[in-house]
Design brief:
Layout (H helix, E strand, L loop, with lengths): L1 E5 L1 H4 L4 H13 L6 E6 L5 H8 L3 E4 L9 H16 L3 E4 L13 E6 L3 H4 L1 H4 L1 H16 L3 E4 L2 H10 L7 E4 L18 E5 L8 H13 L5 E5 L5 H13 L3 E3 L5 H10 L2 E4 L8 H7 L5 E4 L3 H5 L5 E3 L5 H14 L6 H9 L3 H15 L5
Parallel strand pairs: 1-2, 1-4, 2-3, 4-5, 5-6, 6-7, 8-9, 8-11, 9-10, 11-12, 12-13
Helix pairs in contact: 2-16, 9-10, 9-14
Length: about 375
């Protein structure tokens, strides 16, 4: 069975969606019945190069594509490749297919969240309209949907009732076991790893940290992740100038990320909207205290085994809640509970779910 994959999110400095694909591909390429061809704008990251070394064919457009009219040109490239490859399945990992792709293949998409529709303020009105229009069109020609959580499925079907008629399964994000053992220590810093954007609550964190220092907090704050928004960049620079103890590392390698987890005092993930929240699961593998916002998604994924702060109320209230929680988090960790949570997202378990889902739906009538 030949599966062509839009791997653009894996091509250069992948974050959430790219790592979702990376981890599933690592598992799915083990199955001899599947043959993968990866399609991307570029092949620059250590992750996509890994698959090339494993003998997976990678085809690239040759130039980076960003969220603009260039995406349509990129999908013209995708169509050309699909005409040549003649796959059984085309897998769009990034949810939206902006043009109707032609061919005899089945189309499978992954839906990570409905945030561009639910949180217009983080994405902008134009992109929100584009996303809603394009996903409505995409669903007309979609044969299979992978959801990253039950909450995402319910929200999608509420907004797009026709999605209920499409074959689907929940393909939670994979949490890979560590190949190497890491010695953990408390080196006196609070850690945030993730995209540097308001949706992830980075603005709250940068505003709460000075208040944390005012309240007597002494730990450093280390942030790592791609800078996504100019106003977050400006806020970071202003806060670093006014408040000591903040270090920004930009995008970090896989190994560096693990070192940061291993040595932090507490992992702080103040996201305002989350489809899954893989960094939280990653922090659990290091048995670290974790501080998160009280989003409903965490009830589905991890239950009440971590520190939370209340996102309700005004921004001033949210900032105060976060600052107080950073000062007073519980450092005790139930390692057994953490282990049980992480095991829910084991590669073999989730890979087999997707394998079975594909095999049950390919070859049947749409």
């Amino acid at each position: 069975m030949k599966i062509a994959v839009d791997a653009r999110t894996l091509g250069s400095r992948p974050s959430g969606v790219g790592m979702y694909l990376n981890d599933f591909l690592k598992e799915l390429i083990k199955y001899p019945e599947f043959e993968f061809v990866l399609l991307s704008d570029v092949a620059e990251s250590e992750y996509i190069k890994y698959f090339e070394k494993q003998g997976v064919e990678v085809r690239t457009q040759g130039k980076a594509t960003y969220r603009s009219a260039g995406v349509y040109g990129y999908f013209a490239f995708i169509q050309k490749q699909l005409n040549e490859i003649q796959p059984d399945i085309f897998w769009e990992v990034n949810t939206v297919i902006p043009i109707r792709l032609k061919g005899s293949f089945k189309t499978m998409i992954t839906i990570h969240d409905m945030f561009p529709i639910e949180y217009v303020e983080y994405f902008g009105r134009i992109y929100s309209m584009y996303f809603k229009y394009s996903l409505k069109k995409t669903l007309k020609y979609t044969d299979m949907i992978l959801y990253n959580s039950e909450q995402t499925r319910k929200t999608t079907e509420k907004i797009f009732p026709n999605a209920k008629k499409i074959a689907h399964c929940n393909a939670y994000i994979i949490a890979n076991p560590h190949k190497a053992k890491y010695e953990t220590a408390d080196k006196g810093y609070l850690l945030y790893i993730g995209n540097m954007e308001k949706r992830k609550g980075v603005d709250l964190l940068l505003k709460a940290y000075p208040r944390y220092r005012q309240l007597g907090g002494e730990k450093k704050l280390i942030l790592a992740g791609k800078m996504q928004e100019e106003d977050i960049r400006q806020l970071l620079e202003q806060t670093m100038q006014a408040t000591p103890g903040i270090e920004y590392l930009d995008y970090v390698t896989h190994e560096k990320k693990h070192q940061l987890f291993a040595n932090c005092s507490c992992f702080v993930f103040p996201s305002k909207a989350e489809g899954f929240g893989m960094p939280v699961i990653e922090a659990m593998k290091f048995c670290k205290p974790i501080l998160i916002s009280n989003l409903d998604i965490y009830d589905e994924l991890i239950g009440p085994c971590v520190n939370e702060f209340d996102l309700n109320g005004s921004e001033h209230t949210q900032i105060e809640n976060l600052a107080q929680a950073m000062l007073q988090f519980h450092s005790d960790v139930c390692t057994q509970t953490y282990k049980e949570v992480v095991e829910q997202f084991a590669p073999a378990k989730l890979g087999n779910i997707v394998r079975t889902f594909i095999e049950e739906n390919v070859g049947t009538e749409s």
